[in-house]
């Protein structure tokens, strides 16, 4: 039986937690953030928006349903949100070595070792999360005693360039041609578009998509600071001079806002959960949403021809924007979920309806 190896999580303020390794034995540094979802760790760990981050799960028991198979459908993984594990490290309270699920093929620990991602259990994640809520997300490092590592801020680099695809790819053969600007896209966005009779033309973050033949533009989620994506913003600015429909999600919301002339800023500890309530502007309609972001749009900086579309009920931050006359809108949350509630998946239908109306003239 392999002896449990003790390892440390060190925060930039000097706070130290001691845990036990169940993933790959490697020291790493990144931004420490927490998420409160009770389920969906295979989807979260493969979400490119977590690039560069050490992820803390507030739900105490992780690993009990293992890791799903890696089957493919329509050119993408069926049960993952990308083709790899994107987190830098995983911090949990209690690790379930035994797992049971109809679709499980391996344990969480085995999966982390395959992707050379360290994982710690035996950490007081409640105490750790309270620190992050009070002081905000901060830099940290998972450090093995024989492998020291320095703190490193992932947001100092353009993480979108890391998470994006490196060449154009096409999925499906539907009636509606949608250019998907990949800033770190989750696969369920592609699935939702394919389910709605779309041909998805996936292009890198710095690709001039305005030269493509398309019916609509989709701006994906992704990691890091939207201010680092100036090239993408320039192409979006060219696109909004036209009337072809645009939809964005998460980072896509921030990039659309910056292209319109608005500002973005970093949240104290971000929104990473399945239970974020958002209100549709001008109504009493509230939706429960899945979210994963550390930056937000400053709604007061929106130009006169744009307006907030959704607002967060908890902290009143912006959760989406829309143009007052043109078919452009975006959400800060994830209508495609994966994992999480699907209350707002209807927004994909609205995007396709905008395309149909535009094509009819």
UniProtKB/TrEMBL annotation:
It catalyses: L-glutamine + H2O = L-glutamate + NH4(+); hydrogencarbonate + L-glutamine + 2 ATP + H2O = carbamoyl phosphate + L-glutamate + 2 ADP + phosphate + 2 H(+). L-glutamine binds at residues 49, 222, 224, 251, 254, 292, 294-295. Residues 5-143 form the Carbamoyl-phosphate synthase small subunit N-terminal domain. InterPro entries: Anth_synth/Amidotransfase, CarbamoylP_synth_ssu, CarbamoylP_synth_ssu_N, CarbP_synth_ssu_N_sf, Class_I_gatase-like, CPSase_GATase1, GATASE. Transmembrane segments: none annotated. GO terms for biological process: 'de novo' pyrimidine nucleobase biosynthetic process; 'de novo' UMP biosynthetic process; glutamine metabolic process; L-arginine biosynthetic process. It holds the Pfam family GATase. Its EC number is 6.3.5.5. Pathway: Pyrimidine metabolism; UMP biosynthesis via de novo pathway; (S)-dihydroorotate from bicarbonate: step 1/3; Amino-acid biosynthesis; L-arginine biosynthesis; carbamoyl phosphate from bicarbonate: step 1/1. Keywords: Amino-acid biosynthesis, Arginine biosynthesis, ATP-binding, Glutamine amidotransferase, Ligase, Nucleotide-binding, Pyrimidine biosynthesis. Small subunit of the glutamine-dependent carbamoyl phosphate synthetase (CPSase). CPSase catalyzes the formation of carbamoyl phosphate from the ammonia moiety of glutamine, carbonate, and phosphate donated by ATP, constituting the first step of 2 biosynthetic pathways, one leading to arginine and/or urea and the other to pyrimidine nucleotides. The small subunit (glutamine amidotransferase) binds and cleaves glutamine to supply the large subunit with the substrate ammonia. Belongs to the CarA family. Composed of two chains; the small (or glutamine) chain promotes the hydrolysis of glutamine to ammonia, which is used by the large (or ammonia) chain to synthesize carbamoyl phosphate. Tetramer of heterodimers (alpha,beta)4. NCBIfam families: CPSaseIIsmall, PRK12838.1. This is Carbamoyl phosphate synthase small chain. It comes from Mangrovibacterium marinum. The lineage of its organism: Bacteria, Pseudomonadati, Bacteroidota, Bacteroidia, Marinilabiliales. The gene is carA.
